[in-house]
Amino acid sequence: MIRDVSPSIMDLRRKLRKWAAVALCIGPLGQPAQAEVTVFAAASLKNVLEEIGEAFEQTYGEPVVLSVAGSSVLARQIAYGAPADVFMPANSAWMDDVLKRGRIQEDTRRDIVGNGLVLVRPAGTGPKDQIPDLAASFSADENGKIAMALVDAVPAGIYGKTALQHLGVWDGLAPRVVQTDNVRAALALVALGEVPLGIVYASDALREHRVEVVVEFPAAFHPPILYPAAVVADAKSDRAGDFVMFLQSETAQAMFDKAGFAPVEVNP
């Protein structure tokens, strides 16, 4: 007797299509594949990386999730196994530290962008008709506080301390320094008028309309300010490497430039 088995075959085909669809969302060992790129980035990168992340998602169809903080905090989190795909600190030293711990894919490391260091004050609180002298700016108010990121841990604070040492004023200023967890927090203190001066990145000062730049620190006063990026050793996203490369694209570099960051020589 011949039976019509076509209904069963059709049912089987439907099940196979469902299983195939499910398989596309399942990674190794039955774990769901990650559908986003998690980026641990220095606080000073927050706004520009939000914009770059949107452009990346439009190009690759995968969203970017940012976790921003001081570079030292993020480095320690990655060292202890935090679930990050890409690390982008505000100096090479913290990238080197994480690399030595075996937590970075060394061949993916790239220097992405640079920055400058500036002294800021609340907007409208000083004369605009002259270019102030750096040393004079600090001695004008001997009791005034100066906001800086942590001077022994956070890159912006380290750069700032080095610049002040170069000027020969650090020892006298150290008791007046108000240290914060990251450079954005230091910027906020100045913007709110809580302190009369702050040392922040040029890109931060450009974005915050409540502060004005007193003077720029010459690049020779501190080590080059570089933002490297690399894929974390146990990255879950297959697009992590694509994101690092996208940071060097004309699209991303134009966004960095508009945000006040400085270009660096493109890595091969």
Automatic annotation (TrEMBL):
Keywords: Metal-binding, Molybdenum, Signal. The keyword Signal applies. The lineage of its organism: Bacteria, Pseudomonadati, Pseudomonadota, Alphaproteobacteria, Rhodobacterales. InterPro entries: ModA, ModA/WtpA. This is Molybdate transport system substrate-binding protein. Belongs to the bacterial solute-binding protein ModA family. Gene3D superfamilies: Periplasmic binding protein-like II. The complex is composed of two ATP-binding proteins (ModC), two transmembrane proteins (ModB) and a solute-binding protein (ModA). GO terms for biological process: molybdate ion transport. GO terms for molecular function: metal ion binding; molybdate ion binding; tungstate binding. One of its GO terms (cellular component) is outer membrane-bounded periplasmic space. Molybdate binds at S44, S71, A156, V183, Y201. It comes from the Bacteria. SUPFAM superfamilies: Periplasmic binding protein-like II (SSF53850).
